[in-house]
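Kindly inspect what follows.
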Amino acid sequence: MINVTLENFDAEVVAASHEVPVLVDFWAPWCGPCKVIGPLLEKVETEYDGRFKLVKIDSDQEQQLAQAFGIRSIPTCVLMSGGKPVDGFQGAIPESQIKAFLDKNLPSPDELLAQDDAQDAQALLAAGDPKAALHKLHEALTINPGNDDARYDYVKLLIENDMLDDAEAALAPALAAIPRQIRFEALGQFLDAIKFVVADDRGTWAPAQFDALIATNKRDFDTRLAKARVLMVGGDWTGAMDELLEIIMRDKTWNDAVPRKTFVAILELLTPPKPKVDPASVGKSAGGIEVLGKVAVQEDPQAQLVSAYRRKLSMALN
């Protein structure tokens, strides 16, 4: 348990909640119910062994924080995760209700174990050991099949290591989910392109062979799509998107809109991951607690490329 003030709020609550959920207990020395629930919260924090972090804020001494959270009565507990309030409760509720509240909002021990495995996999991958990374990611999914981040990393790594059947099997549950996440749809389109290159005779063609056919018929969409897939698998992303745009501009719905879906998949695969939050950038605003702060970030070249081709697609579709 940590006592939090305005001075250490950013570090102990906002930044810390990006690593582990933080339960903020608003209390005051004169509050009888606060004296009842306070020891229960500390007991539960110990029992949950790091699954959440407990902090206490004296609402009398830290009125600016209390106002920012809209605290009208105490005790009030607010759960923070990812820098944002996600749930809360008021009053001196029993220990059983505290645990029910936490169990509803916190990752289970198995989920935490799976997260650790996924983090270990990233470290192993960075160290140049993809086989061990695959093992860790498979372990993470065995423990928690709902870990979408681990599934995405696992499928992507399987593809990169030419384990296409395994990748297709691991991707299947995500493609069957409703709604389907665009990042999994992107991996599915990439797998389709790879399977085409492996199975179709045109998978070994040079660009000039495609261009010779296209020159005789600008609407030879099948050849254009084949060329785009070969370029995509070969890593010529912009060349693939340019070819797909030629189809989309002429016929937006051809072949169940596969060219558009493939184009969107490439954009998704090229989109840089969101940067991790810098604790030094978080701050407070007059309207309450500002989660991420206002930091000017220069767009990197790959993000600029994605933005440019998103605009091209939008123009082609309109």
